[in-house]
Amino acid sequence: MSVDKATVAKIASLARIRVTDAEVEAMVPELNQILDWVEQLGEVDCAGVEPMTAVIPNTLRLRDDIVDADPLTGGNVRDKVLANAPAPEHGFFGVPKVIE
């Protein structure tokens, strides 16, 4: 794929970026080099390579999930929370129907 001056000008117009003719001239070879590099990446055989999220192995540091660890902020306070609700229903917050 090749980019010409008209394509660069159209992209700049769509992106609402003001570019001069000199800047358009400079962008044409740069964009063509980028597209050539992307085509080279498409030629790389990556079969058998596992996807990764980082270049170093990471593991999440998790804490133990302890229910009711703190009596003030722990669980089992549903009734206290729902006491402030305007329309509690069946142990949940009642909300108006928004979907027919």
Layout: helices, strands, pairs:
Elements: H1 5-14, H2 21-43, H3 78-82, E1 88-89, E2 92-93
Antiparallel strand pairs: 1-2
Question: What key phrases describe this protein's structure?
Answer:
100 residues; two-stranded antiparallel sheet; single chain
Task: Please explain how this structure is put together.
The protein has 100 residues and is mostly helical. The protein is 38% helix and 4% strand. The chain has three helices and two strands; from the N terminus they run αααββ. The protein has helices spanning 5-14, 21-43, 78-82, and strands at residues 88-89, 92-93. It has a two-stranded antiparallel ribbon with strand order 1-2. The longest helix is centred in the N-terminal third of the chain and has 23 residues, at 21-43. The chain is elongated, with a radius of gyration of 29 Å. The chain starts with a helix and ends in a 7-residue tail after the last strand. The model has no long low-confidence stretch (mean pLDDT 87).
